[in-house]
TrEMBL record:
Keyword tags: NAD, Oxidoreductase, Tricarboxylic acid cycle
Binding-site residues, substrate: 92, 98, 131, 162
Role noted for this protein: Catalyzes the reversible oxidation of malate to oxaloacetate.
GO molecular function: L-malate dehydrogenase (NAD+) activity
EC number from the UniProt entry: 1.1.1.37
Catalytic residues (positions): 187 (proton acceptor)
UniProt-recorded name of the protein: Malate dehydrogenase
Domain Lactate/malate dehydrogenase N-terminal: 6-145
Cleaved signal peptide residues: none
Enzyme class: oxidoreductase
Gene: mdh
UniProt cross-references to InterPro entries, sorted A to Z: L-lactate/malate_DH, Lactate/malate_DH_C, Lactate/malate_DH_N, Lactate_DH/Glyco_Ohase_4_C, Malate_DH_AS, Malate_DH_type2, NAD(P)-bd_dom_sf
Length: 328
């Protein structure tokens, strides 16, 4: 049998945590033959609720689940962790300015970065889900100098999956027939879902659909504002779909992308496609043997260039704001 993989989940008592933990424990994160040990991090007030979720995990009698430990201290929670899912974050509340939001999250992601630096396993992989995800990942990464920057990623896989779903409906094809979808930039309303490089049956999806008005006025805003539409309909923010995307992100990172396809991950920029070095921005990436690389050599037309520049510009502003606050 394989050695167990230790997975730390923050915000474990929240709604994404509730949808995520059962799938990790049942083997969907890493594989049906990989035993897991869970370490859950919560704030003190939510530890009891996390204990309730742990009771339910016990009651599922998952054969792969080799233990659950619950913490309210980040240093302890990240001790020996191989996969860190940073879900817990400070949500924006009424009257909060962007600076306040970034500062409040800096108070969470700076110590978590330090804790990962101090105690995580050498092969640690980090996925930040908690918003503003890209910039929270940047904060954590900048406080973990001993961990390669490439190990800190943020989630745009939900946006990627939303884009697949919208395109599949429009084109009347299965999501499995769509390859090379890309989300560029920030996990925010400025993100750019790119249909020019996406393919249906080997042809550009934009050409197959051949409807620029739909692409600009319907597809892009529907994908970018889907989170708000879910809140409006469900009365609560996306949870099961976000958890499913987190599972997909890590599963792809660990197990590799398929030949002839890629995925979307927010990763530290090396300057590719004019994205300033060091920003954590979503790119088309392939993965192999547990490492990602940015797909190179794509031609970017004027329309895509404008969209990419806008979302990357927002990321640069967020970076400047957290730098000014002394958070990076
Ligand atoms: P919930 O409010 O249900 O749960 C968050 C949990 O985090 C709470 O239990 C809270 O006690 C805990 N928490 C807060 N501070 C913590 C800390 N310092 N350490 C450990 N735990 C802490 O939110 P939920 O719906 O689960 O969403 C979690 C985060 O995901 C939010 O920031 C949300 O904006 C973000 N999302 C990101 C998405 C993405 O695609 N990147 C999509 C879904 C989601 O909106």
């Amino acid at each position: 049998t394989r050695t167990p993989v230790t997975v730390t989940v923050t915000g474990a008592a929240g709604q994404i945590g509730y949808a995520l933990l059962f799938r990790i424990a049942s083997g969907h994160l890493l594989g049906a033959d990989v035993p897991v040990k869970l370490r859950l991090l919560e704030i003190p007030q939510a530890v009891k609720a996390a204990e309730g979720t742990a009771m339910e995990l016990d009651d599922c009698a998952f054969p792969l689940l080799q233990g659950i430990d619950i913490f309210d201290d980040a240093t302890a929670a990240f001790q020996g962790t191989n996969v860190a899912l940073l879900v817990g974050a400070r949500p924006r509340t009424k009257g909060m300015e962007r600076g306040d939001l970034l500062e409040a999250n800096g108070g969470i992601f700076k110590p978590q970065g330090e804790a990962i630096n101090a105690g995580a396993a050498d092969d640690v992989k980090v996925l930040v889900v908690g918003n503003p995800a890209n910039t929270n990942a940047l904060i954590a990464q900048s406080h973990a100098p001993d961990v390669p920057a490439a190990r800190f990623t943020a989630m745009t896989r939900l946006d990627h999956n939303r884009a697949l779903a919208q395109l599949s409906k429009k084109a009347g094809v299965s999501v499995a027939d769509i390859k090379k979808m890309t989300i560029w930039g920030n996990h925010s309303a400025t993100q750019y879902p790119d249909l020019f490089h996406a393919e249906i049956g080997g042809k550009s999806a934009a050409a197959v659909v051949n409807d620029q008005k739909w692409l600009e006025d319907d597809f892009i805003p529907t994908v970018a504002k889907r989170g708000a539409a879910i809140i409006e309909a469900r009365g609560a923010s996306s949870a099961a779909s976000a958890a499913s995307a987190a599972i997909d992100h890590v599963h792809t990172w660990v197990n590799g992308t398929a030949e002839g396809d890629w995925t979307s991950m927010a990763v530290v920029s090396d300057g590719s496609y004019g994205v300033p070095e060091g920003l954590i921005s979503s790119f088309p990436v392939t993965t192999k043997d547990g490492e990602w690389s940015i797909v190179q050599g794509l031609e970017i037309d004027e329309f895509s260039r404008g969209r990419i520049d806008a979302t990357v510009g927002e990321l640069a502003e967020e970076r400047d704001a957290v730098r000014k606050l002394g958070l990076i």
